[in-house]
Write a structure and sequence with these properties.
single chain; 491 residues; Rossmann fold; 3 domains; four-stranded parallel β-sheet; four-stranded antiparallel β-sheet; 15 strands; 49% helix
């Protein structure tokens, strides 16, 4: 099977054929750096990180560009409110973004350009558009003339006449058409500015991405990505201004990820259901969050809730326990011995699942980067591993290569998805430490109560023993009674 991707431009899946054989050039719209990033940003960036990883897994040479929008009305407004230069705001939140992405395990893109470092390239494109008659000056502003570009709205599939009739855009008498958009904005008093042929001003949002993407990737490149909210107007306007300037196709494949909902409602600050990455990572492990974000197909909506995060954590636990079991078997640690007939059956099943796993992994990812199906295949393999181990398969030295192959398959997929990359013991220690830090009871007090319970049970005071067990359970502590001692874990 060859890689097929869903192209928003054609509204269908297409075989992925790079513009230049063996090489992929990809641009993904980054964040406007005026505040902390939310989980919608986390999803978009994790999605395209996985796409980047998988393309390289296919031995393609990938140039990946993700920008920073570091000049914008929101940045300026926050700077005015705090009484600091605009670039102090942008640099602060660039650093915060970088920290968030590092915690989520993202690979660094090839280039991370800033809009303010590409003013010369932006002015050059705007000048070209003006010279070609595709843009016009109105005072100190420059607007793109949408009626001069025949393909306008081909990405979103909208109708220009219908949009004009129902437009709620603030009337600007200087515009030739209500849908015309700013390429260059005249600076208002007190705002940052750069000199240009049209006076002191700053770039519009859309032109920044055209300038940065074409500088690093050329006038035509393979993939342009971002959230579905960017299809219109941002990506639509990028196509118009870029193709009007160069006369060439701008992007071959347009990829867009779906929205994140909060408890089945659209995430929104106004609804009070807005969560930053930093807030979420205070409660959940970064690998769990990443696993959750990949548990649905990237184009589908994703419902964020504590229950869904808890389910993701439980899924991670199953996989890491299987990996731990494999490691113990490969180290020669004795395991239970099952009946020979059921062991033979379990071994046959693991042999079949393990042998087909690499192909099923490739098929899932080749089908428009279907991480949900890829993870489903992991759970399928894990079930076979667990059954084989439960039947005592780990005791058979000649069967251990099956376990090693299963482990290698899970690890290989994990490298592409950015999960299952920790050693099992380190992962479980990390999870336990996080949960203990959130407890309302100190570990020392837990141990004291366990000792008191043991004493009560020895004195046959089972009622007191049950009271202590229930008290700890109410505080989120589950007791595990073993033949030698009682241990505990966080619920």
């Amino acid at each position: 099977m060859t890689l097929r991707v869903y192209n928003t431009l054609s509204a269908g899946k297409e075989e992925f054929i790079p513009v230049e054989p063996g090489k992929v050039r990809m641009y993904v719209c980054g964040v406007t750096v005026y505040d902390h990033c939310h989980i919608g940003h986390a999803r978009a960036n994790v999605v395209f990180d996985v796409i980047y990883r998988y393309l390289r897994h296919l031995d393609l040479e990938v140039t990946y560009v993700r920008n920073y929008t570091d000049i914008d009305d929101k940045i300026i407004n926050r700077a005015i409110k705090e009484g600091v230069p605009f670039n102090e705001i942008s640099e602060r939140f660039i650093a915060e973004f970088d920290r968030d992405m590092a915690r989520l395990g993202l690979e660094l893109p090839t280039h991370q350009p800033k809009a303010t470092e590409h003013i010369a390239e932006i002015i050059a494109i705007v000048r070209t558009l003006v010279d070609k008659g595709a843009a016009y000056q109105a005072g100190g502003d420059v607007y793109f003339c949408v009626e001069r570009f025949d393909g306008y709205l081909k990405l979103s599939g909208r109708n220009l006449e219908e949009m004009q009739a129902g437009a709620r855009i603030e009337v600007d008498e200087r515009k030739r058409h209500p849908m015309d958009f700013a390429l260059w904005k005249e600076a208002k008093p007190g705002e940052p500015f750069w000199d240009s042929p049209w006076g002191k001003g700053r770039p519009g949002w859309h032109i920044e991405c055209s300038a940065m993407s074409m500088k690093y990737l050329g006038e035509t490149f393979d993939i342009h990505g971002g959230g579905k909210d960017l299809i219109f107007p941002h990506h639509e306007n990028e196509i118009a201004q870029s193709e009007a300037a160069t006369g060439r196709r701008f992007v071959k494949y347009w990829l867009h990820n779906g929205f994140v909902n909060i408890n089945a409602e659209k995430m929104s600050k106004s609804l009070g259901n807005f969560f930053t990455i930093k807030e979420v990572l205070e409660k959940y492990d970064s690998e769990v969050l990443r696993f959750f974000l990949l548990s649905a197909h990237y184009r589908s909506p994703l419902d964020f809730s504590d229950q869904n995060l808890a389910e993701a954590e439980a899924g991670m636990e199953r996989i890491y326990k299987a990996l731990a079991g494999i490691d113990e078997a490969l180290a020669g640690k004795p395991a239970p011995v099952g009946a020979s007939a059921t062991l033979a059956e379990a071994e046959g099943e693991l042999r079949e699942k393990g042998a087909s796993f690499p192909e099923r992994f490739r098929e899932a990812m080749d089908d428009d980067f279907n991480t949900a199906l890829a993870l489903g295949n992991v759970f399928d393999l894990v079930r076979s591993v667990n059954r084989f181990l439960a039947e005592g398969g780990g005791n058979k030295e000649e069967s251990r290569p099956l376990l090693a192959a299963a482990r290698a398959g899970i690890r290989e997929l994990g490298e592409v998805l950015g999960v299952f990359t920790s050693e099992p013991a380190a992962y479980f220690e990390r999870i336990k430490g996080r949960k203990v830090a959130q407890l309302t009871i100190a570990p020392e007090e837990i141990e004291r109560l366990i000792a008191e319970r043991a004493a009560a049970r020895s004195a046959r005071d089972f009622r007191r023993g049950d009271e202590i067990r229930d008290l700890l359970l109410a505080k989120g502590i589950v007791l595990l009674d073993g033949p030698q001692e009682t241990t505990w874990k966080v619920k």
